[in-house]
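Supplementary material to the annual report.
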Amino acid sequence: MSIAPDLSDWFRANARDLPWRRPGFTAWGTLVSEFMLQQTPVARVIPRLAEWLERWPSPSALAAAPPGDAVRAWASLGYPRRALNLHACAVAIAELHGGVVPEDVDQLLALPGVGPYTARAVAVFAYGHRHPVVDTNVRRVLARAVDGLGEPAPPSTRRDLAAMDALLPVTLTDARVFNAAAMELGAIVCTARAPKCDECPIRDACAWRAEGYPVYLGARKPVQKRFEGSDRQVRGLILAELRAVDVPVPASELTAVWADGTQRSRAIAGLLSDGLAVRTDAGYALPGH
DNA sequence: AACGCGTGGTG
DNA sequence: TCACCAAGCGT
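Predicted assembly:
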């Protein structure tokens, strides 16, 4: 009953051909892709990633651009703070690391918008270091295969990293493949809804299967708050307005995108506070240099 | 630790 | 249709 060898063999035979798995893909490309993949599906990332790397092929190239250009190029990937953080990363890498993406996990963690997942993903996939990489897919795979639970407990970085570390093969190459394999299994076989257990390469070792696929019984919180009418929706609408034009947008024009003044003001204040927008004499705009 | 933060595809 | 979901992070 093994997990790592079978899963890794399956991955070597079945891995999707994704841009960040191409030979010669740069560490900068890996960092950009990981930022874009934070809560955004692969299919939506791929075209934006290609555009981004053609325009800004290095951290220094992005660092030289105004942050507003990054926010605009982020387009509809969602959570535009990531664009701002990625730009800030580029500046930090240019100024503190000689324009080279650092490979040390602690140095990566010190970069804005880089957390436990992204730091290890870059260290492992771009540089071949040996660390456990745990994302939402891996948490689900381990919950099922190891713990026999239909869905994972609430995330705990410390516990989750320890659980993956316990399964990690010894050699650099095997560890990297296993990390990628666990993510891939969660993404295309051991999915959140309707997992394809019949096609699973580790079904014979799966604790969840062995126990008859028990369903989770506890109460569940809503995955997300309602989007319609939310501050998130209003922020998104206002930012779309700022992205669409090259000149400051007068406050009077923003009344057209959301009528409720209280909520509109709150959204604008939030955008200003996050640095996603700035106030000028002529109105609101994306941040410049 | 729980919550806020976008956007669009899908069963 | 409409909840649910998608390679998280910062606070």
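Residues 183 and 244 of chain A are 36 Å apart (CA to CA).
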